[in-house]
């Protein structure tokens, strides 16, 4: 126990002894035996160690500093060193379990010090510690239902990409890095491919292929990688950075296109009558897997035939006008069942067959409203979307097992129910060649074989081209449309010769056995002599189509530049025109400016006239495009 001293009001201490600590008795006994403090030991604080008297000197109490948080009226107990405690244990005296207080120097080391943040090295500051791992993660993809489904959206995307190209060209090209140059070239090449797809869609007045946003992303990535190879730089190009930048463009386009389409539909509903409303419903009809879907607002709860969920009251969904198939809008493109009312191709004997297309006449594969067989159009569109930059396109053959599997799936299930994205690009090209090779009669027909050979023998290139085109115009209607689509596709493949290494000559050699052959019996020597003439015939047609394609794209680029310049001037003119007076329309103000020849009115008259001229000029450019 400790000895406490109570301070009185007069300043005189009043002592009260409770008990002597056993620890203190052991120390006193030890000093009697050893004769005082041990040599070299630590000196104790000087005060009387007797049992019956404790000095009442205030200065004696102040010889040792007070600990932080210790009461001022507490007299400190004696302290012992490590050796003294060991000695006390030899006498069998129990040591109290209270806290042993050290001297001021040792006690200060146990005081709470303010926490100081340590200085980290540069290596520690590079990457903050984290438990997040990229293992097993994948790149974010757009949902399946996000796609370009009609010509208007394709036009809006084409205009949007061109605006981005114009904005990028405004920056100083001298400060462009190699990444900027490659990205601009890739975006320009992507815009050319998009313009070609738009031309095909406008020619048919319908978008036969649904361009999903994830497909557009993959296509741009292929274009970007091809441009990186063409540049030939040793530096590692950040392809991911370019893809992310293009993803930002697509996100921006999604927001703008929704707003534009909403405004256009709002203006159409204001001006349309009942008759035009029915026509608009026919135009808004969506065709997918043979279904002719029309948007319907349901008045009673209806079950979706795909997901079996309820389509609630006042909710809009799709209903097929042929087989009455009902589904949500989001479930439309997830459906795999074709329309029950879709016509099936007929076999040679005229009987209704299954979905077989390989080895059947071309006339039996074309349905009403189509110029090109659906299987050929689907295969060509898939190849153009995913394989224009693939090295050895059409030269390399796909796996025979995969080709057989795809052909069987098309014949049994129909091309509408086959997911072509699951097959490699070389399997698709080999299947397309098999389609043309297995036709009962070649695409260029047996009757015109000799005419094609004679036209290819003309030495003058211009006359030879004219003769070849004159012969192709004599083809049957179905053959002519399919041959025209195929040649345009091969011209697009030859346009990317730097990436896919396929020239017009190479493509002609590959497709000659599939397109042009004779049923006459010839000797082997004569047949070998006609092979170069056959190749020359197809090569001349592909080369001429490639020349037309490049010239058309150049003209469209020139028209786009002129349209952008006219739009900028029109914005400037409209901003400079003063707003009309309250209650007065711009037309009335224009007539008033023309009648009163004041200087201000003359300037307004000129501005209004320029505005009308620019608007008419922009409309002419759009029609010419």
TrEMBL record:
<dbReference type="InterPro" id="IPR046349">
    <property type="entry name" value="C1-like_sf"/>
</dbReference>
<feature type="domain" description="Phorbol-ester/DAG-type">
    <location>
        <begin position="290"/>
        <end position="339"/>
    </location>
</feature>
<dbReference type="GO" id="GO:0005737">
    <property type="term" value="C:cytoplasm"/>
</dbReference>
<dbReference type="InterPro" id="IPR046987">
    <property type="entry name" value="Myo9"/>
</dbReference>
<dbReference type="GO" id="GO:0035556">
    <property type="term" value="P:intracellular signal transduction"/>
</dbReference>
<feature type="region of interest" description="Disordered">
    <location>
        <begin position="578"/>
        <end position="599"/>
    </location>
</feature>
<dbReference type="GO" id="GO:0051015">
    <property type="term" value="F:actin filament binding"/>
</dbReference>
<dbReference type="InterPro" id="IPR002219">
    <property type="entry name" value="PKC_DAG/PE"/>
</dbReference>
<dbReference type="GO" id="GO:0046872">
    <property type="term" value="F:metal ion binding"/>
</dbReference>
<dbReference type="Pfam" id="PF00620">
    <property type="entry name" value="RhoGAP"/>
</dbReference>
<dbReference type="GO" id="GO:0005884">
    <property type="term" value="C:actin filament"/>
</dbReference>
<dbReference type="Pfam" id="PF00130">
    <property type="entry name" value="C1_1"/>
</dbReference>
<keyword id="KW-0479">Metal-binding</keyword>
<keyword id="KW-0963">Cytoplasm</keyword>
<dbReference type="InterPro" id="IPR000198">
    <property type="entry name" value="RhoGAP_dom"/>
</dbReference>
<protein>
    <recommendedName>
        <fullName>Rho-GAP domain-containing protein</fullName>
    </recommendedName>
</protein>
<keyword id="KW-0862">Zinc</keyword>
<dbReference type="GO" id="GO:0000146">
    <property type="term" value="F:microfilament motor activity"/>
</dbReference>
<feature type="compositionally biased region" description="Basic residues">
    <location>
        <begin position="108"/>
        <end position="120"/>
    </location>
</feature>
<feature type="region of interest" description="Disordered">
    <location>
        <begin position="33"/>
        <end position="63"/>
    </location>
</feature>
<feature type="region of interest" description="Disordered">
    <location>
        <begin position="103"/>
        <end position="130"/>
    </location>
</feature>
<dbReference type="InterPro" id="IPR008936">
    <property type="entry name" value="Rho_GTPase_activation_prot"/>
</dbReference>
<dbReference type="GO" id="GO:0005096">
    <property type="term" value="F:GTPase activator activity"/>
</dbReference>
<feature type="domain" description="Rho-GAP">
    <location>
        <begin position="360"/>
        <end position="549"/>
    </location>
</feature>
């Amino acid at each position: 126990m400790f000895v406490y001293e109570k301070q009185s009001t007069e300043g005189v201490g009043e002592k009260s002894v409770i008990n002597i600590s056993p620890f203190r008795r052991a120390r006193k006994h030890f000093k009697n035996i050893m004769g005082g403090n041990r040599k070299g030991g630590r000196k104790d604080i000087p005060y009387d160690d007797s049992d019956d008297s404790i000095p009442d000197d205030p200065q004696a109490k102040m010889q040792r500093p007070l600990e932080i948080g210790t009461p001022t009226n507490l007299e400190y107990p004696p302290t012992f060193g490590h050796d003294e405690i060991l000695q006390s244990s030899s006498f069998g005296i129990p040591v109290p379990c209270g806290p042993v207080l050290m001297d001021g120097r040792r006690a200060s080391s146990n005081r709470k010090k303010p926490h100081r943040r340590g200085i980290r090295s540069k290596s520690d500051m590079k990457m903050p510690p984290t438990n997040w791992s990229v293992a097993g993660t994948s790149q974010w993809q757009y949902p399946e239902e996000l796609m370009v489904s009609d010509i208007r959206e394709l036009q809006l995307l084409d205009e949007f990409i061109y605006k981005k190209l114009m904005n990028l060209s405004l920056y100083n090209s001298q400060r462009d890095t190699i990444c900027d140059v490659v990205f601009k070239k890739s975006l320009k090449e992507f815009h050319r491919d998009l313009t070609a797809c738009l031309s095909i869609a406008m020619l048919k007045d319908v978008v036969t292929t649904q361009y999903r946003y994830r497909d557009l992303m993959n296509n741009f990535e292929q274009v970007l990688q091809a441009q990186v190879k063409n540049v030939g730089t040793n530096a590692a190009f950040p392809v991911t950075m370019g893809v992310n930048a293009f993803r930002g463009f697509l996100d921006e386009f999604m927001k703008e296109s929704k707003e534009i389409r909403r405004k256009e539909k709002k203006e159409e509903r204001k001006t349309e009558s009942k008759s035009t409303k029915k026509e608009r419903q026919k135009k808004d009809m969506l065709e997918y897997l043979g279904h002719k879907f029309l948007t319907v607002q349901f008045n009673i709860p209806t079950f979706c035939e795909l997901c079996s969920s309820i389509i609630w009251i006042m909710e809009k969904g799709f209903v097929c006008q042929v087989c009455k198939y009902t589904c949500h809008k989001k479930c439309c493109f997830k459906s795999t069942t074709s329309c029950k009312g879709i016509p099936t191709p007929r076999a040679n004997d005229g009987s209704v067959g299954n979905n077989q297309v390989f080895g059947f006449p071309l006339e039996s594969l074309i349905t009403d409203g189509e110029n090109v067989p659906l299987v050929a159009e689907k295969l060509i569109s898939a190849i153009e979307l995913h394989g224009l930059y693939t090295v050895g396109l059409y030269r390399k053959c796909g796996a025979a097992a995969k080709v057989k599997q795809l052909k069987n799936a098309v014949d049994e299930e129909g091309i509408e129910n086959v997911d072509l994205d699951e097959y490699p690009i070389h399997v698709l090209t080999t299947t397309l060649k098999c389609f043309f090779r297995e036709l009962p009669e070649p695409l260029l027909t047996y009757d015109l074989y000799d005419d094609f050979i004679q036209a290819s023998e003309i030495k003058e290139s211009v006359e030879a081209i004219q003769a070849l085109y004159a012969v192709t115009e004599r083809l049957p209607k179905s053959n002519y449309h399919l041959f025209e689509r195929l040649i345009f596709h091969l011209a697009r493949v030859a346009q990317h010769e730097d990436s896919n290494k396929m020239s017009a000559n190479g493509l002609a050699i590959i497709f000659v056995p599939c397109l042009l052959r004779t049923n006459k019996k010839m000797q082997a020597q004569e047949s070998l002599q006609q092979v170069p003439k056959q190749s020359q015939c197809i090569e001349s047609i592909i080369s001429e189509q490639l020349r037309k394609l490049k010239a058309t794209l150049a003209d469209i680029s020139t028209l786009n530049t002129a349209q952008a310049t006219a739009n900028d001037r029109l914005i400037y003119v409209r901003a400079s025109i003063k707003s009309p007076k309250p209650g007065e329309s711009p037309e009335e103000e224009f007539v008033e400016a023309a009648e009163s020849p004041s200087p201000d009115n003359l300037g307004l008259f000129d501005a209004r006239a320029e505005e009308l001229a620019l608007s008419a000029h922009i409309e002419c450019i759009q029609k010419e495009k």
